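Retry 2 of 3 after timeout on previous attempt. Resubmitting structure tokens to design endpoint.
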């Protein structure tokens, strides 16, 4: 019985880990597209990311990509989501993007 329970826990941990890595890949793609000014593809990747991981950074960048695509209603909605999760998100994203430029 203990072995069965331990096996189930291991399977759950592996599933959660796999999902988080898949989500991070979508975030990385979204950032890459955004920085390359490919806002349409950034929007697609960031939508996938926030659907799996409701992260304020993802919502914030998605809001900007949609703003650049003139999807103002969606943009406002996603900015609101970002600020609802983390009211101090703007300086955090700015700092993150500056660090990425130094890579």
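Retry 2 succeeded. Sequence:
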């Amino acid at each position: 019985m203990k072995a069965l329970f331990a096996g189930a826990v291991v399977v759950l941990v592996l599933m959660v880990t796999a999902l988080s890595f898949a989500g991070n890949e979508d975030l990385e793609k979204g950032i890459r597209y955004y920085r390359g000014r490919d806002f349409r593809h950034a929007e697609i990747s960031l939508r996938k990311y926030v659907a799996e991981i409701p992260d304020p950074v993802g919502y914030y960048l998605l809001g900007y990509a949609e703003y650049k695509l003139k999807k103002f209603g969606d943009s406002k909605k996603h900015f609101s989501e970002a600020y609802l999760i983390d009211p101090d998100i703007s300086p955090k994203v700015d700092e993150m993007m500056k660090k990425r430029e130094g890579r």
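Attempt log closed. The chain has five helices and no strands.
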